[in-house]
Amino acid sequence: MFENLANTLRGLGAWTIDALWKLGFASRFLLAIVMQSGQLFLRPHLLIREIYFAGVLSLIIIIVSGIFVGMVLALQGYNTLVRFGSADALGTLVALSLLRELGPVLAALLFASRSGSAMTAEIGLMKATEQLDAMAVMGVNPVARVIAPRFWAGVLSLPVLTALFNVMGIIGGYYVGVVMIGLDEGAYWAQMQNAVDIYDDVANGMIKSVFFGIAVTLIAVFEGYDSEATAAGVVSHDAHSRDICPGNSGNGFCSDGLYVLVENSGVQASVNKFK
């Protein structure tokens, strides 16, 4: 009995330590991205390219999902409001629900499922095929060249996608409430205009979308960069980095900078990616 309890506590402690290591690694990874983001001003085409892949190619799923979410929200909201004789407030219900809560959350989930997963897979594949290591050996900073453009593309794209999602949701609610159910068009827009505040509702939703963009994109690029390497010759999450960098989590970070371990014919070398 006591042995089982001890094993459980050991497992819980190991999980806690690994979680703290990973949290610290992710924090330093974010700091490295911010420090290396200045190069985007010299090569803005990298950021524009990633905005196209992360944002523009996500428009279809955002538009379609926004329309149907607004339609469902209007239909269910009408069934509830009509019981209390407040059906004219349907526009307010749809707008405030989307602008304050549903818009940022659902847009972030859609962005994570489409663009976030693509970023993770792309960076993980580059790591598995030794492309990131090759960049470091050639003196090209992988964080500045690969990670930073994708991170800022996600942060900048998500607020725009959220705003588009809100607009399409309101249009979907208008179609159900006014066109299908037959509510007064003037009441739909007038109630919405009187109830929605540009600062308390619209601005707060945009601020939420910015933080969601930071969280979703950071998790996507971090999981890709921290993914388990599978190809031969690529360093894995084992004791190699711990041997070179005492106190390291095994994720390629040392106390004095970001490092990549390069294996070539049995020879290991550490390359500082901050150079």
Quick overview of this protein structure:
By secondary structure, the protein is mainly α.
Write the topology of this structure.
Blueprint (H helix, E strand, L loop, with lengths): L1 H34 L8 H11 L4 H23 L8 H39 L2 H7 L4 H40 L3 H11 L2 H28 L14 H5 L8 E2 L2 E8 L2 E6 L3
Antiparallel strand pairs: 1-2, 2-3
Helix pairs in contact: 2-6, 3-4, 3-6, 4-6, 4-7, 4-8, 6-8
Structure explained in plain terms:
There is one protein chain. With 275 residues, the protein is mainly alpha-helical. The chain has one domain (36-232). The protein has helices at residues 2-35, 44-54, 59-81, 90-128, 131-137, 142-181, 185-195, 198-225, 240-244, and strands at 253-254, 257-264, 267-272. It has a three-stranded antiparallel sheet. The longest helix is centred in the middle third of the chain and has 40 residues, at 142-181. The radius of gyration is 24 Å and the shape is globular. It starts with a helix and ends with a strand. The model is unreliable at 231-275 (pLDDT under 50).
